[in-house]
Amino acid sequence: MHHLQGFERAFGTFPLKGDELATALITALDVGYRAIDTAQMYKNEKTIGSVLSTSRIKRNDLLVTSKVPIDQFDAQHFIPSVKQSLEDLQLDNLDVLLLHWPPANGKIEASVEQLLIAKQNGLTKHIGVSNYTSVMLEQLVQFSDETFVCNQVEFHPLLDQSKLLQASNKTGIPLSSYCSVARGKALEDPVIVDLAEKYQRTPGQIVLKWILQKGLSINTMSTNPDNIRANFNLLDFNLSNVDSACIDALGRHNYRIVNKNLVPWAPDWD
Q1: Which of 33, 42, 132, 255 is catalytic?
Q2: What are 215-228's pLDDT values in tens digits?
Q3: pLDDT of residue 1
Q4: Do 266 and 210 contact (CB within 8 A), yes or no?
């Protein structure tokens, strides 16, 4: 499913900035993370750039994702915006460039066109989207036969995203998770706590493994070195189908973090 090496486990950097981000990112790289997720809206690309430029890790071993904000989607601003991200990150190109949100009017074509131009110009190796609905994924594959490596969306056990997952499988555009542990709320759920005990794992590892086993790539942020390590070490155990189904059932809570109160331009979610 994940044709980008290392992309399935990325270190998310929102909302970290400055020294707190630098320290966490250095820890993440030491632990083994090679995929790093940022965005122009996070206002932290310069810090990431300075960490990466002094790291012993080779550029070819890194997988850096950034995102263009919706106020830069027009033809005049889009490419300069990407170039600004590259300058701040001290990179010649990105590995993955995403559209951070669908346009407020829901018409995706013009911004996707700009994304394709960025790729043609060598500013990024791969392209994708974020916060697209199932309808938008359908529109995307009708508009362009380019490969889109992900649709990064809110995805955790407390939110039923089965409709979006279905659209992802149908269109061949993989989902990638953010808010992967529901900002900590999923870690307190008794079902997750019980499974953590059963598997002798942290609640975070249970949640993240559940997402991975659904075929998604995951983005996780932590500043705690133990959690950074635990969040990365997910490959040496599997959840049974029965236990995964118990976690699936938590979707009935329909607990959505990124709603229109938080982000007024959010689309009408599935």
Answers
A1: 42
A2: 999 999 999 999 99
A3: 40
A4: no
